[in-house]
C-alpha cells in the first residue's frame, strides 16, 4: 500500500485548525466560502429552505468537498479554499480512504425552522474539543471531547455522521463509523468481544466514552500492521474495497465480458444482426467472452436467452418514426377508473416508459437482512402513511408492535361497494385496498417533516372488527422504526401533507440510504445481474426526441456508481433518474434503410459500432443439385457493390434455409419472396440493373432469365398517336426460371 496515497490528511488537518479561528466569526467565514464558489464558478449547496446561509458549522464545510462529486471538482473546491485561507499544504492527488456524505444530506444541521437553538454551536464545540484532544490527549481534553460528542449525537439527523466528521479533521485519532467500516470491524474481529457486546454490535451510536475507547483500542490493535493496515486511513480504504464486491458488484460484473456498454450492430439486411443480439445478450448476462458463446450450440444459447427474457433481464423494442420520449422514458397518460355506479373518473398519472421501467428494475438495490430477502418487489411504489395522526398515539404504537398498518373510514364497512364521486376518502381507500401491492414500501409519517419508520408491505387488505377504530389493515415488515428522519430534501423540498395515504415521489436509492443508516441488522446488497436492453432498427427513430436528456446519461462514465455518474430530474415525475451501470444497450441498424453516415452524431459518439457484413463462409458446402450457393452469393454481392454500394449487399441469412432443405423449391422460394423483392427496392424498379445483378443480361436463353423483356407494340395498343413513350419494353418475372437450376448456374 503506497503511503503517498493517504497524504490528504495533511491539508485536511491544516484546514481544520485554520477553521478554529472562525468559530466566533462565522459571518466572515460564510463570506469567504461564497468567494470560493464564485471564483471557481460553481454553485454553493443549499443550506436553508429559503436559499440563504444563516449560519454554518465546520463539518458541513468539509462536507462541501467530501460528497458525491468528481475528484476534479473536489480539487477545484479544495484548491480555492487553500488560496482563500492561506493553507500551506498542497491539494492531494488522491482521496482514497475518505468517506463521503450523501449529496442530499451534506449538511450536519437541519433547516433553521427544524433545528435546535444550539445545534450549530454544539457542532463547533465538539469540533474544537476533538482537535484539542487529538493534538494534546490530556485527561481534561478527553473529558471535554466525550461531553461535547454526547451533546451532538442527541441532535436530529446526526447519528453516525459525526464520526465521519471527526475522521475528516483528525484521521489519525478518530475512526469513521459508517456502515462499511462498522461491518468490516465486526467481521475482522479486531476489537475484543466484550467491547463489541458493550456497544451492542454497533446497533446504536456509541456514546462519547465508548467512542474514544473504541478509537484507542483500534489504534493499539492495528498500529503494527499485522492486519494489513496501520492506521484508520488504510483501514477505511480496505473496508471500502472489500465492500465494493457487494455494494458495487456491477462494476466487477462488467470485467469478464468483452462487450461495450453501448453497442450498435450495423450492416445490410440478412447479415445476422438480430441473430447476434442473442449471443451478445447471453454473453453479457453470463459474464462471458463473446467468442465463448459463439462456439456454443445456437439452440442452447437461444433457450437461455428466452429464459433471461422471461426473468426480466432482457427487454426488446423497435424504434420507428412515431416512437417518442413518452413511450421510452416517461409520460403523462389518462387512467380511467370505473365504479359499480358506472361512473367513470379520469385521472392523469405519470407513467414510466419501457426503458425507465427497465432501468428501475435493473438498478434496484436488493437489500438482504440476516441473509433473508426483505421482500421489496421489482418496481415498488413508495407510500406515505399517517397512523391515526402525527406524533405519538396508541394506533402508531400498536402498529409498530404488531407489524402492520391501519387506516379508518370504518363507517363504509369491510367491502367497499359505494366508492362513487363525493365519498370522503375515496382515493385513499382505493389506494389502500386496490393499488397498494405486496413488496411496496411504506414510510410512516411522524410529522410534516419526518418519518419514524420504514417498512415493506407483506399482506393483502384485511378487515379487523376487534379494533374499535382504524379497522382496515395490511401486514408490514418494519425494517427500521423508532427513528426520526427528515425527508424534506429527498422529497423535492415538499413537506408531508395531511391525506392519510398517498404516493411519494422519492427515489428508492434514498430510501435505501435511510434504511442502511438506521438498520440494527447487517444490511448488504445482493449481487445485481447485468441487464440488456435491445433496440431494433435504432436508426429509424428520432434519437433526440426519444432519449431526451438521457442521451448523456447512457455514456459509460456517466452511469450510476461511476466517477462521473450523473442523475437528471425528469420533467414529468420530477424524480432524479440515472442509468445503472449494469444496463447494456444493444442496437441494430439496417444500413440499407439509412446510411450510417447520416445517423445522429449524438448516437455515434456514445455507441461502439460493430459492422456485420455478408459472410460467404457460412454458406460453404451448401449445394442445390451441383450449383454452389456460395458462388452465387459472392457473384451477386460483387455486382451490387459496383452498381450500388456495399451497404446494400445481400445478407447470408436469406440462404440459410438451404442448409436443412437444399432443394430447387427452397431456392426458388428464397429468390421469389426475398431476393428479387429486395433488389426491386434497392434499384427502384430499375430492371436493367436488377437483370445485371442476376446475370440475366448474359444468359443465352429466356428460360434462364429471372427477369424477361417483352417488347411493346404501342401502335397496336393505342393506335397511331404522336406520343413519346419512355420505354419500348416491359419486364416480367419468369416463373419458369425460378425452378430451372440452369438459371442459377448461369448467374
Mean pLDDT: 84
Report on the biggest sheet: 7 strands, mixed
* Count of DSSP-assigned helices: 30
Distance between the first and last residues' Cα: 69 Å
Low-confidence stretches: 244-255
Number of distinct beta strands? 23
Give the strand content: 15-25%
Structural class: alpha+beta
Outline type: elongated
- From the alpha carbons, calculate the radius of gyration and give it in angstroms: 34 Å
Estimate percent helicity: 25-40%
In terms of topology, how is this protein built?
Elements: H1 8-19, H2 26-39, H3 58-63, H4 71-84, H5 119-135, H6 139-153, H7 161-169, H8 179-188, H9 193-198, H10 208-222, H11 232-247, H12 249-253, E1 262-267, H13 273-285, H14 290-294, H15 298-310, E2 314-318, H16 325-328, E3 330-338, E4 344-352, H17 354-362, E5 367-369, E6 372-373, E7 382-385, H18 394-402, E8 404-407, H19 426-435, E9 441-445, E10 450-457, E11 462-463, E12 472-486, E13 501-503, H20 508-518, E14 523-525, E15 531-536, H21 543-547, H22 550-553, E16 568-569, E17 576-577, E18 583-590, H23 601-606, E19 608-611, E20 623-624, E21 627-628, H24 629-643, H25 657-660, H26 664-682, H27 687-694, E22 707-711, H28 714-718, E23 729-733, H29 735-738, H30 741-745
Parallel strand pairs: 1-18, 1-19, 2-15, 7-9, 15-18
Antiparallel strand pairs: 3-4, 5-6, 5-14, 7-13, 8-12, 9-10, 10-12, 11-12, 16-17, 20-21, 22-23
Helix pairs in contact: 2-4, 5-6, 6-10, 8-11, 13-15, 24-27
Amino acid at each position: 500500500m503506497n503511503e503517498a496515497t493517504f497524504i490528504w490528511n495533511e491539508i485536511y488537518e491544516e484546514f481544520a485548525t485554520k477553521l478554529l479561528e472562525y468559530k466566533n466569526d462565522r459571518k466572515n467565514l460564510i463570506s469567504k466560502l461564497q468567494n470560493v464558489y464564485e471564483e471557481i464558478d460553481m454553485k454553493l449547496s443549499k443550506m436553508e429552505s429559503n436559499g440563504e446561509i444563516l449560519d454554518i458549522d465546520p463539518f458541513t464545510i468539509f462536507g462541501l468537498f467530501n460528497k458525491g462529486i468528481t475528484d476534479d471538482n473536489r480539487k477545484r473546491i479544495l484548491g480555492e479554499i487553500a488560496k482563500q485561507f492561506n493553507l500551506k499544504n498542497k491539494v492531494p492527488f488522491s482521496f482514497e480512504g475518505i468517506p463521503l456524505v450523501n449529496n442530499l444530506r451534506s449538511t450536519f444541521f437541519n433547516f433553521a425552522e427544524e433545528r435546535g437553538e444550539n445545534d450549530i454551536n454544539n457542532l463547533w464545540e465538539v469540533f474544537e474539543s476533538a482537535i484539542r484532544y487529538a493534538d494534546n490527549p490530556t485527561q481534561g481534553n478527553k473529558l471535554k471531547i466525550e461531553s461535547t460528542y454526547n451533546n451532538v449525537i442527541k441532535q436530529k439527523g446526526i447519528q453516525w455522521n459525526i464520526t465521519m466528521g471527526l475522521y475528516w479533521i483528525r484521521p489519525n485519532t478518530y475512526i469513521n463509523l459508517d456502515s462499511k467500516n462498522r461491518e468490516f470491524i465486526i467481521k475482522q474481529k479486531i476489537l475484543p468481544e466484550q467491547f463489541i457486546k458493550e456497544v451492542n454490535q454497533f446497533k446504536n451510536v456509541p456514546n462519547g466514552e465508548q467512542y474514544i475507547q473504541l478509537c484507542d483500542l483500534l489504534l493499539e490493535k492495528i498500529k503494527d500492521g499485522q492486519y494489513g493496515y496501520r492506521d484508520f486511513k488504510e483501514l477505511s480504504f480496505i473496508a471500502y474495497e472489500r465492500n465494493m464486491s457487494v455494494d458495487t458488484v456491477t462494476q466487477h460484473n462488467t470485467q469478464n465480458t468483452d462487450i461495450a456498454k453501448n453497442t450498435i450492430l450495423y450492416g445490410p439486411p440478412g447479415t445476422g444482426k438480430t441473430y447476434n443480439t442473442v449471443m451478445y445478450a447471453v454473453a453479457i448476462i453470463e459474464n462471458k467472452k463473446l467468442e465463448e458463446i459463439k462456439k456454443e450450440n445456437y439452440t442452447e444459447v437461444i433457450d437461455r436467452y428466452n429464459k433471461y427474457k422471461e426473468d426480466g433481464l432482457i427487454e426488446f423494442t423497435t424504434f420507428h418514426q412515431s416512437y417518442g420520449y413518452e413511450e421510452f422514458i416517461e409520460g403523462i397518460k389518462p387512467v380511467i377508473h370505473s365504479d359499480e355506479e358506472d361512473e367513470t373518473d379520469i385521472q392523469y398519472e405519470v407513467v414510466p416508459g419501457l426503458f425507465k421501467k427497465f432501468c428501475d428494475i435493473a438498478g434496484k438495490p436488493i437489500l438482504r437482512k440476516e441473509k433473508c430477502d426483505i421482500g421489496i418487489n421489482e418496481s415498488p411504489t413508495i407510500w406515505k402513511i399517517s397512523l391515526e395522526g402525527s406524533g405519538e398515539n396508541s394506533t402508531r404504537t400498536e402498529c409498530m408492535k404488531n407489524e402492520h398498518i391501519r387506516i379508518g373510514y370504518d363507517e363504509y364497512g369491510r367491502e367497499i361497494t359505494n366508492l362513487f364521486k363525493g365519498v370522503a376518502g375515496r382515493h385513499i381507500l382505493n389506494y389502500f385496498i386496490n393499488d397498494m401491492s405486496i413488496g411496496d414500501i411504506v414510510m410512516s409519517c411522524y410529522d410534516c417533516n419526518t418519518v419514524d419508520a420504514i417498512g415493506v408491505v407483506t399482506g393483502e387488505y384485511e378487515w379487523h372488527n376487534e379494533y374499535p377504530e382504524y379497522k382496515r389493515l395490511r401486514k408490514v415488515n418494519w425494517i427500521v422504526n423508532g427513528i426520526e428522519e427528515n425527508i424534506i430534501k429527498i422529497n423535492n423540498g415538499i413537506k408531508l401533507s395531511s391525506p392519510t395515504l398517498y404516493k411519494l415521489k422519492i427515489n428508492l436509492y434514498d430510501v435505501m440510504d435511510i434504511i442502511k443508516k438506521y438498520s440494527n441488522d447487517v444490511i448488504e446488497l445482493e449481487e445485481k445481474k447485468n441487464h440488456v436492453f435491445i433496440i431494433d432498427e435504432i436508426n429509424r427513430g428520432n434519437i433526440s426526441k426519444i432519449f431526451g436528456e438521457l442521451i448523456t446519461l447512457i455514456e459509460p462514465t456517466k452511469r450510476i456508481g461511476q466517477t462521473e455518474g450523473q442523475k437528471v430530474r425528469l420533467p414529468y415525475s420530477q424524480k432524479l433518474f440515472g442509468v445503472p451501470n449494469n444496463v447494456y444497450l444493444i442496437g441494430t441498424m439496417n444500413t440499407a434503410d439509412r446510411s450510417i453516415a447520416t445517423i445522429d452524431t449524438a448516437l455515434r459518439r456514445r455507441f461502439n459500432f460493430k459492422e456485420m457484413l455478408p459472410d460467404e463462409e457460412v454458406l460453404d458446402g451448401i449445394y442445390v443439385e451441383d450449383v454452389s450457393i456460395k458462388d452465387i452469393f459472392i457473384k451477386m454481392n460483387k455486382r451490387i457493390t459496383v452498381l450500388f454500394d456495399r451497404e446494400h449487399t445481400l445478407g447470408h441469412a436469406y440462404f440459410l434455409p438451404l442448409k436443412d432443405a437444399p432443394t430447387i423449391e427452397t431456392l426458388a422460394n428464397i429468390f421469389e419472396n426475398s431476393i428479387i423483392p429486395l433488389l426491386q427496392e434497392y434499384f427502384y424498379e430499375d430492371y436493367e440493373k436488377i437483370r445485371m445483378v442476376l446475370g440475366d443480361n448474359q444468359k443465352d436463353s429466356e428460360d434462364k432469365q429471372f427477369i424477361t423483356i417483352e417488347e411493346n407494340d404501342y401502335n397496336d395498343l393505342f393506335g397511331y398517336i404522336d406520343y413519346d413513350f419512355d420505354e419500348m419494353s416491359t419486364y416480367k418475372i419468369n416463373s419458369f426460371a425460378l425452378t430451372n437450376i440452369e438459371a442459377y448456374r448461369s448467374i
